[in-house]
Hints:
This protein is of the alpha+beta class.
Amino acid sequence: xxxxxxxxxxxxxxxxxxxxxxxxxxxxxxxxxxxxxxxxxxxxxxxxxxxxxxxxxxxxxxxxxxxxxxxxxxxxxxxxxxxxxxxxxxxxxxxxxxxxxxxxxxxxxxxxxxxxxxxxxxxxxxxxxxxxxxxxxxxxxxxxxxxxxxxxxxxxxxxxxxxxxxxxxxxxxxxxxxxxxxxxxxxxxxxxxxxxxxxxxxxxxxxxxxxxxxxxxxxxxxxxxxxxxxxxxxxxxxxxxxxxxxxxxxxxxxxxxxxxxxxxxxxxxxxxxxxxxxxxxxxxxxxxxxxxxxxxxxxxxxxxxxxxxxxxxxxxxxxxxxxxxxxxxxxxxxxxxxxxxxxxxxxxxxxxxxxxxxxxxxxxxxxxxxxxxxxxxxx
Length: 379
């Protein structure tokens, strides 16, 4: 593979959003050709590679798309895994493997995997509907999560007490004990076909209170060396337990008692790794390509402390995107703006991100908050 992948070799990406866009940007350095499938004909990847408009969950669409690729990967989990299994039978390489995508598509399966593999995680109850959530009043406060298709903060509802029970989902899911935590961290880990594993230093995430998605993060996480080592060991144990080829983002809680508990995992490049493009020797996107192409893993060391700020559509605006404060932000040293090519903005839509690098942590945080307050996506 390593000697031929760049000659007449085509990587297929299921999903044409910003993660696929940044994967393609990284792959250009390796002279890799890409083919992309996405239901939106104007998706961020649509003008960067050979592009097919089609439904990611449709068996025949995914099967036909995959036949035109040498290797297939994903940038979103909501894909037709039955078609991917057929492609594997036909001799195509699919990474991450379809069975792993299938497991991670269901948050209940994820939680059961953690239990079976002695991975520390919050206590939980499986529920089938709203009534079953109500039957677990004694388990509150808790987080109700949809089993399937929750993404970017959707499909998650906090149930603090009985008065919140009406907010519960009337669909299969789980009820997870609400964790008191000091910080939320993420470790991104990779594994290639040869079984070589490499991990990035943990980052610390801050979530948007309304949208329930990452608002900004800092790298490295401000945690003690023992906690950092524990988080790293958990991420490595997970990717090896899954036998996954590719990249795995592992989101975790750090409790006041120093416990490290896995929240969720994603078998693809992740929002918590965007800053690696400027902040680390190897980006998460290059690392994912190295893993699925069975190349040696790159150096994950931090070159400089960094912050990442998500550019979310402002709450009261929908329409053609307009970036207010862009010039003021670009005047700052160490600031790198990444726009995702989405023409239309809507409340809390991910429109881009900004990475800030600075050797001084005080200056880094000051610049990050300046970016957050200054650069607005409006219509």
